Amino acid sequence: MIRSLARTCTPSVLLLALALGGCSSEWTDARDRTALAYRIEPAPGYKTDIIALMRTYLNDPSGVRDAFISEPALRPIENAERYTICLRYTARKGGGQYAASKDSVVIFREGRVDHIVDTVREMCKDAAYQPFPELEHLTR
User: Fold this and answer.
1) How far is CA 74 from the centre of its chain?
2) Cα radius of gyration rounded to whole Å, the chain
3) Pairwise CA distance, residues 62 & 54, whole Å
C-alpha cells in the first residue's frame, strides 16, 4: 500500500499523511491515559478527602444529617467507566431549615477526589449505602 501511495502521491502529501498519523496516535494515547486515570481505585484516605470537599461544597456544612456513603465502584459516566462513590445526605439551606435529602456522586481521578456531581437517584439506585457519621459531624 505504501509503495502504491509513493507512486501516486507527491512527497509533500506523503509527509502530511505521516504527520497526521503521528497526531492520531498521540491523541489516542492521551485519551487512553485519561481513561486510565479514572480507573485507578481511590486511595485509602478517600473519606477524609470527601469530608474536605463537602466542607467547601455545602453552603452550611454544620448539622448535616442522615449521611450515607457507598463503597467505591466503577460506574459509567460520560461514556466511560469511572471510580465513583455515592453520597446521600440532608443539609441545611439558608435560614437554618433543612433541604430535601440529596444524592451526589463523587468522581475520582488518579485515585483522588476530582469533583462532585449532583445527580438523580437513578445513578446510585443499586448502591449499598453505609452510615457516614463523619459527614454529620462537620462544623463551619
Assistant:
1) 10
2) 23
3) 10
CA 38 from centre of chain: 7
Residue 46 CB coordination number (10 Å) = 19
Sequence ranges of the domains in the chain: 2-38, 46-136
Which cell goes with 44? 485509602
- Helices first, then strands: H and E counts in the chain: 4, 6
The rounded distance, in Å, linking the Cα atoms of 91 and 63 is: 7
Torsion angle (degrees, nearest 10) of CA 39, 67, 57, 78: 30
pLDDT tens by residue, 38-94: 788 998 999 999 999 999 999 888 889 999 999 999 998 877 889 999 999 999 887
d(CA 56, CA 58): 6
Q: Structure pTM?
A: 0.73
